[in-house]
Design goal:
Structural class: mainly alpha
Strand order of the largest sheet: 1-2
Shape: elongated
Distance between the termini: 74 Å
Oligomer: single chain
Number of strands: 6
Mean pLDDT: 77
Number of helices: 8
């Protein structure tokens, strides 16, 4: 009886070893044809990247009477030198706290096209793409925003989504939130009488 058990175990072991050898000896062509979402890995590697709009977002909240900027700036000669703004944007100068020692309006706003933002590379952006401008300095926040960890998104997982821009929550001229006092903790069940 024990000899028969030993022979069966021996046969199963040999069969298992043969299966492993057979699986390892197969060429890798079969793995190239594994399909993900209907596209083989080969096709995915060879497929050219299409230019797609990254995120469709609503326009940022503009202050009444300030935008579009060209309404006023079309009448003024541009002055690129750094200075304190005392007449028309004194409200912004009063609150400006966005690395104010090193930053100036023209680090983000374009000198000639006032209704556009300007990247460090000189590329002009629409205000709907302001997340790209913010992401130049705040790369980790942009990364988190893109994957939905930072910021607010609404919509459906398989349908239309709405993304809020940085400036929907943060004032671009003073982005740090004011400190708030936390609420007291909830009352524990055993403390309720």
């Amino acid at each position: 009886m024990e000899i028969r058990k030993f022979k069966n175990i021996h046969r199963l072991t040999i069969l298992l070893i043969l299966c492993v050898i057979l699986a390892l000896s197969c060429n890798n062509k079969a793995t190239d044809e594994i399909k993900f979402h209907g596209v083989s890995q080969k096709q995915a590697k060879n497929k050219k990247t299409e230019k797609v709009t990254e995120f469709a977002v609503d326009a940022p909240p503009f202050s009444y009477g300030i935008y579009p900027c060209t309404d006023c700036h079309a009448n003024f000669a541009p002055k690129p030198e750094k200075r304190e703004l005392v007449e028309w944007h004194d409200d912004i100068s009063a609150i400006f706290n966005h690395d104010s020692e090193n930053r100036w309006c023209l680090d983000c706003h374009d000198l000639k096209s006032r209704d556009s933002l300007r990247l460090a590379s000189g590329k002009l952006l629409d205000f709907k793409e302001s997340y790209k401008l913010c992401g130049q300095c705040h790369g980790e926040k942009l990364r988190d925003w893109k994957v939905g960890v930072h910021g607010k998104r609404t919509g459906f997982w398989n349908g239309k989504k709405e993304y809020l821009l940085c400036v929907h929550c943060h004032d671009p001229h003073a982005p740090k939130f004011k400190e708030i006092t936390p609420e007291p903790p909830p009352v524990r069940q055993e403390d309720i009488k």
